[in-house]
Specification:
5-stranded mixed sheet, 766 residues, 11% strand, 22 helices, alpha+beta
Length: 766
């Protein structure tokens, strides 16, 4: 029976509740972030007042301004949290969620303006300076919209990462299932040549020396009796595996005679030590096949188990031909190493060394733990690095830097540039009324308006160039976060210098001087203007960088999620193929064991009939065992396998069941996955009551664009759900998709009809 598979890993995170969505946005951390944001805004706006006020007066004015801004910031933070909570509660899609967010931000910004007026202490400002209040409302509406967009991107990224985590959890489960299926396939394989040769020797010895034939058949049955638990279990013990190796070598010794000598020993207390099944027999088979088999004189095999520290050490030493050109890279040893790596990771090892004077010593080390757990860890996802390597040829540093900058700018998506430009445009629109008011007070000039409108966009693009350079940089220079911080500080300085310079070139200095003269104050000092502009640029850059980083992160998560989905689809198909391979590898050991026992008993009373049954068994194995190496078959080949199987069953059970096969010629060579039909036949003859059906008929025909295989069994109750039927349906769904079906109906309470419907081509696997 199949081994239980690991349960799926729990989901990485549970869906957000409306309350959790609100608290995710409105919490101590985000409140602190709003405080520092407002502090930067206030300092940037009031820094130039230091020239006209003493420090205490400036600090009090700054604190009052900070209070007003905190009112707007916290109200909008709560509004954004409410918008996100509503989107989660109602399950709104992107456009609806953004629309709700924009409407609530507009309303929240208006409420914040009223609260600011109330906190200011006079309501007369509502009518005396509506332009100022409109500017405040527009400014915080824009900041609130950007904040909501940022939090929305964060939430989308978190949701995408949750789905990515769930897919990777499912991948780990699928990997475990595939490993389990492959291990089952390895465990279930009975070495075909060994089986054929042994049965042929039994057949020959019963004709020439019946006593020797009886002894060899008994040894083969003992071997299968020892092998059956290992083939059906995911774990074994050293004692059981040594018994299996002893039975195997005893059979070979009867065939090889004096050409084979062996010994088996183990330290006291180790026989119950756990170990994976069928590993030791594989090493013994390898020693016989590649070591002793090619030598006319044969040789000796010694198996010794001992304790080596905290490990179980098993040596398989042979005096055979020694290393060949393959040097231990055969399929058997490769599969054994894969099994050990899958079960124990690096805690187990298998090493081959040259023996003295000749031969090979295979040394197996296993941890002496109660039960080894699978140690194969899913490799960590490696994030793609957008690294730009500077040319190594000798040329001026400024040319290398310019080439790097140009490649970085060209490598940034147009969408990112448009986002930065849009942010600058929003700031321009928000600040334009205030700047136009300043120009009007100082005297209008045609160039002043356009310059004021373009300056924020120009500054935004300068800041974004800094981010593009940091994004394209190599982590060998600085870690990404450090690069982003350096870019923000450096680009802010460049943008401040360029902005102030452009402002003065466009006549901004005259405006500042005229406004200062009207107030009876000297113009602000240039260092203070530059410092204030630098703080403002850091604020602008922080907004741009935060949105740009979240956009990049979300795009990267989306790519990883799509890759994980493709990986998962491939893994699902590999798991199904591995399960099919495990099914193919099973030569129904219990059937084989029971058949050999019946043949042994039949030799006592009817040697001729026993020999005939042995011939039928060999014919069946000849048809079944090639499936161990094939991934595809045909309808006719699978019917031959069924016929050979039922001939053995019929011979041992008094002529029951009788088989009738009808097949359209057009279906004979249609492609067909192996071991899909035989399990249904085996299920039919393994009734819990032990009563075999009288007849089994198989009808294969084409109809309505599909191939139908109808299996009729003259026994009732064959449609009861059981694991075998469920496994066949699972494999059909995986191999053929929705195009294949398996239907089962009871006919008049006397027989069962199973109908297998496949695509007409017979093989279109997904």
């Amino acid at each position: 029976m199949d081994q239980p598979l690991p349960a799926p890993v729990a989901l990485c995170a549970q869906p957000l509740s409306p309350r959790a969505a609100f608290c995710r946005i409105f919490n101590l951390r985000t409140v602190a972030a709003v405080f520092y944001f407002c502090l930067v805004v206030v300092v940037g706006r009031t820094l130039m007042d230091l020239q006209y006020q003493d420090l205490g007066e400036w600090a009090m004015a700054t604190l009052r301004f900070l209070r007003q801004n905190l009112i707007s910031g916290l109200v909008l933070l709560a509004t954004i949290g409410a918008a996100d909570s509503i989107a989660v509660a109602r399950g709104l899609r992107r456009r609806a969620a953004l629309a709700v967010g924009v409407l609530l931000v507009l309303a929240g910004s208006a409420v914040a303006v009223l609260l600011r007026v109330w906190a200011y202490g006079t309501l007369s400002i509502l009518g005396s300076d509506p332009a100022y209040l409109a500017g405040v409302w527009l400014t915080w509406t824009m900041l609130g919209a950007l904040g909501y967009a940022l939090f929305y991107l964060i939430r989308e990224d978190e949701q995408q990462r949750q789905m990515l985590c769930d897919v990777e959890s499912a991948d780990r489960t699928l990997n475990a299932q595939m490993l389990q299926a492959r291990l089952s396939a390895l465990q279930a394989q009975i070495e075909p040549h060994f089986l054929f040769n042994t049965l042929a020797n039994v057949r020959r010895l019963y004709e020439t020396t019946p006593d020797r034939g009886r002894e060899m058949l008994s040894c083969l049955i003992d071997y299968l009796r020892a092998a059956l638990p290992s083939m059906r279990s995911s774990s074994s013990t050293l004692g059981r595996e040594l018994d299996l190796a002893r039975s195997f070598l005893t059979i070979l010794q009867m065939r090889m005679g004096e050409r084979l000598q062996f010994s088996i020993s183990a330290e006291a207390g180790l026989l119950e030590a756990p170990m994976p099944p069928m590993v030791l027999p594989t090493l013994v088979e390898n020693a016989i096949k590649h070591g002793l088999g090619p030598l006319p004189e044969g040789g000796r095999i010694d198996i010794r188990a001992s304790r080596a520290g905290d490990d179980l050490q098993i040596e398989v030493r042979d005096t055979g031909a020694g290393f060949t050109a393959a040097k231990g890279s055969g399929v058997g040893l490769a599969n054994t190493r894969s099994r050990l790596a899958g079960l124990y990771g690096t805690q187990a090892s298998l090493r081959l060394a040259a023996g003295a004077p000749r031969g090979v010593v295979a040394t197996l080390h296993l941890p002496l733990a109660a039960a080894a757990t699978a140690a194969a860890a899913t490799p960590e996802r490696r994030q793609a690095m957008n690294a730009v390597i500077l040319p190594t040829e000798s040329r001026p540093a400024w040319r290398s830097a310019a080439a790097f900058a140009w490649r970085s700018i060209r490598g940034t998506s147009a969408r990112s540039w448009l986002i930065a430009l849009a942010i600058g445009l929003l700031i321009s629109l928000v600040m334009l009324p205030h700047r136009l008011q300043m120009i009007e007070q100082a005297g209008w000039h045609p160039v002043h308006g356009p310059v004021q409108f373009v300056l924020p966009m120009f500054s935004a693009l300068i800041m974004f160039v800094g981010w593009a350079l940091a994004d394209a940089g190599d982590d060998r220079w600085r870690e990404r976060t450090t690069r982003i911080v350096y870019a923000l500080l450096g680009a802010g300085a460049v943008a401040a210098l360029a902005g102030v310079g452009l402002w003065y070139l466009a006549g901004g200095g005259e405006i500042v001087a005229q406004m200062a003269a009207k107030k009876g104050k000297p113009p602000p000092a240039m260092p203070l203007m530059l410092l204030a502009e630098y703080v403002n640029m850091l604020l602008l850059g922080g907004i741009i960088y935060a949105i740009a980083e979240m956009t990049v992160r979300r795009s990267q998560t989306q790519r990883e999620f799509e890759q994980a989905q493709r990986r998962r689809g491939s893994l699902e198909h590999q798991v199904l193929e591995s399960k099919l391979a495990a099914m193919q590898a099973q030569v129904e050991p219990r059937f084989l064991f029971d058949t050999l026992v019946d043949i042994e008993a039949l030799y006592e009373r009817d040697p001729r009939g026993a020999a005939a049954n042995l011939d039928r068994l060999i014919t069946y194995l000849r048809a079944a065992l090639p499936r161990l190496r094939e991934s595809g078959s045909t309808v006719e080949a699978e019917l031959d396998l069924v016929r050979a199987y039922l001939e053995v069953v019929t011979a041992l059970h008094g002529g029951r069941p009788q088989l009738a096969i009808a097949i359209d010629d057009a279906c004979r060579h249609s492609r067909f996955y192996p071991m899909l039909l035989l399990p249904l036949i085996q299920r039919a003859v393994r009734q819990p009551s032990g009563v075999l059906p009288e007849t089994v008929s198989i009808d294969v025909r084409r109809q309505a664009g599909e191939m139908a295989i109808v299996l009729r069994i003259s026994i009732a109750g064959g449609c009861a759900d059981d694991p075998e039927l469920a496994r066949v349906r699972e494999r059909l769904a995986g191999l053929y998709g929705a195009a294949a079906k398996l239907d089962c109906v009871e006919v008049a309470g006397e027989s069962t009809e199973l109908t297998l419907r496949l695509p007409a081509a017979g093989a279109a696997a997904r």
